[in-house]
Design brief:
Elements: H1 2-27, H2 30-51, H3 54-59, H4 62-88, H5 96-118, H6 125-163
Helix pairs in contact: 1-4, 1-5, 2-4, 4-5, 4-6, 5-6
């Protein structure tokens, strides 16, 4: 019982930190946000140019692409964490709590874009949609991983039981 409470606390803190990270990125000024994106572009661009034609790389707005990937991944992480919390709480993966969780992800996505509007950046419904898709993908990834691990454990137990007979 104590381990379960500890897990719930740790996962809850992780979720709060992820949401704080998402919102802190939204609070950045356009210039600060561009600087952060450009840091990542500086790392990614040499890898992209090594594996792609220079003309293609020149046509791609890597900063924009990296921002979109970041939107997706930060919400995918949030979705994964929320499903982990649902599982630790011994809830069924397909329950009202799961639906509520995905709805919460959508609410956070809307708030995230709303915050951007007041930090001098543009808000975008396409970013909200991308965030929700990212969150749902994180949830789905967790569910697939959960059942895959469960299947592997079942197969392992079956093999051990059949080996002992």
């Amino acid at each position: 019982m104590k381990n379960k409470k500890t897990c719930i606390i740790i996962i809850s803190i992780s979720i709060v930190l992820t949401i704080a990270f998402i919102f802190s990125n939204s609070l950045m000024s356009p210039q600060m946000s561009n600087n952060e994106s450009n840091k990542v572009v500086d790392v990614v661009k040499p890898m992209a140019t090594a594996n792609m034609d220079d003309d293609i790389v020149a046509k791609i707005d890597l900063s924009h692409l990296i921002r979109k990937i970041a939107h997706f991944l930060e919400f995918a992480l949030l979705g994964f964490e929320i499903m982990l919390l649902v599982t630790v709480n011994k809830q069924k993966l397909f329950s009202w709590l799961t639906i509520l969780s995905v709805s919460g992800i959508a609410l956070i996505a809307f708030i995230d874009e709303f915050i951007q509007k007041f930090s001098g950046r543009t808000d975008s419904i396409s970013d909200v949609i991308l965030d929700i898709i990212g969150g749902a993908s994180g949830c789905l990834f967790f569910i697939v991983l959960f059942y895959l691990i469960k299947l592997l454990i079942t197969i392992n137990v079956t093999i051990k039981e059949n080996g002992n007979e």
